[in-house]
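Re: the request from the purification team.
They wanted to know what the chain is likely to look like in 3D before they choose a buffer screen. I agreed to run a prediction and write the result into the notebook, where they can find it.
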Amino acid sequence: MPRLLAATLTVVTAAALAGGAALGIVALLDATPEQPNTPLVTYETAQRER
């Protein structure tokens, strides 16, 4: 019985750590970048004269 309890606790602990790591990765990927999102190449359009 102690081996079964140890195995169960190991599985529960591993699942909790995996879930926490997954949530942490998602939170990091959802974070906004510090640098502004400006395009590297811009094309100027000619304005029409009225």
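For the purification team: The longest helix spans residues 2-30.
Please add any questions underneath this entry.
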